[in-house]
Design goal:
Distance between the termini: 68 Å
Structural class: alpha/beta
Low-confidence stretches: 4-9
CATH architecture: 3-Layer(aba) Sandwich
CATH topology: Rossmann fold
CATH class: Alpha Beta
Number of domains: 1
Strand order of the largest sheet: 5-4-3-6-7-8-11
Shape: globular
Number of strands: 11
Bound molecules: NADPH dihydro-nicotinamide-adenine-dinucleotide phosphate
Order of helices and strands: EEEHEHEHEHEHEEHHEHE
CATH superfamily: NAD(P)-binding Rossmann-like Domain
């Protein structure tokens, strides 16, 4: 995959994928490499990134997305990016918001929201200058429909509005914005989200055929590969056996 630059020569298209050490990010890095992109793969786990780099030829960057200065410096060193996949994310589901540690709340917002904004901030000026580029934000069904997961839902709701507002801000620049909203995907997500092994296995065992990381990567690549005059605004995908929303009733033992 190549693009003409100002000298008329072609250069490899460049992608930056955050959270590329596992799950959806790793699968997307593989797909982008297969399409000929130069892929900058970013995450904290060096061993995972090194394995991905050996297998695919992507360029690994061991970095915590919450280190905003490091993120900005990295983006500057890479130069113009064609596709940013804002994928790094997590949930902390050891407790409801009412009992959650403040650290977990802050980590969730900083990782899922602030870092995605900083990454976009880092790559957008060059995209706007070149009248091309694509920001792909990995949201969640939890950002569109209520779940009993308030902090995670809040963070992904913010990613949803970030995507909508950014698209408006970028009107007329040629820069595309896509939001991908998966439901349950079979990844390491719940290994991070839930600490207690028994509770974790209950969360992880959905009992249904879950969407795979490769299938989410396919959706991402569809949005990336359509002609530049087409902006795929949003893709929702979830297991056929999972649905969203649903009104709940539970009797309350009133105190008065
Ligand atoms: P994984 O846990 O497999 O992947 C999460 C990735 O994010 C890892 O590569 C991890 O890398 C990276 N990451 C987390 N925190 C940081 C950080 N501070 N700095 C850098 N990288 C970080 O889960 P998924 O693949 O499922 O998650 C990918 C995205 O998909 C997330 O945004 C998640 O919210 C979203 N999603 C997942 C769903 C699911 O059911 N799995 C459903 C809907 C949305 P490392 O630990 O090496 O830093």
């Amino acid at each position: 995959m190549s693009a003409a630059n100002t000298t008329g020569k072609t250069r490899s298209r460049i992608a930056l994928v955050t959270g590329a050490s596992s799950g959806i990010g790793a699968a997307t890095a593989v797909r982008l490499r297969a399409d000929g992109y130069t892929v900058h793969a970013l995450a904290r786990r060096v061993d995972r990134l090194d394995s991905l780099a050996s297998a695919t030829g992507c360029i690994p960057h061991a970095l915590d997305v919450r280190d905003h200065d490091a993120l900005l410096t990295l983006a500057e060193s890479i130069g113009p990016v064609d596709v940013l996949v804002n994928n790094a994310g997590l949930a902390r589901m050891d407790a409801r918001l009412a009992e959650s540690s403040i650290e977990d709340l802050v980590t969730t917002i900083d990782t899922n929201v602030t870092s995605a904004m900083v990454a976009a901030r880092a790559v957008l000026p060059a995209m706007i200058e070149r009248n091309q580029g694509h920001i792909v934000n990995i949201g969640s069904m939890a950002g569109l429909y209520p779940l009993p997961a308030a902090s995670y839902g809040t963070s992904k709701g913010a990613v949803h509005l970030l995507s909508l507002n950014l698209r408006l801000e970028l009107t007329g620049t040629g820069v595309r914005v896509t939001e991908i909203n998966p439901g349950r995907v079979s990844t390491e997500f719940y290994d991070v989200a839930v600490t207690d092994p028994d509770r974790r296995s209950k969360f992880k065992d959905s009992g249904v055929d879950e969407v795979t990381a490769d299938e989410v990567a396919d959706a991402i690549m569809y949005a990336v590969d359509v002609p530049r005059h087409v902006n795929i605004n949003r893709i929702e995908l979830q297991p056929t056996e999972q649905t969203y929303g649903g009104s709940q009733f539970d009797r309350v033992d009133w105190n008065d």
